[in-house]
Amino acid sequence: MKNKDVTIEDLARMVHKGFEETAKKSDILRLENRLDRIERLILDDHKRRIEKLEMRMEELYDTLALK
Percent of the chain at pLDDT above 90? Predict the structure, then answer.
């Protein structure tokens, strides 16, 4: 492998290219928003399912006269 002298300008170009390939703040915010929506959907579904189970338990208690 040949040794190549790297100039400051070469190094600056390499660093600049690396920064261009990293995630941008807008990408991160968009991802956070999507994750927030997914979290809300999951929590809403769990809440609905728990409420449904509570109603069914009340019906069961009433049927078995346990109240």
Answer: 58
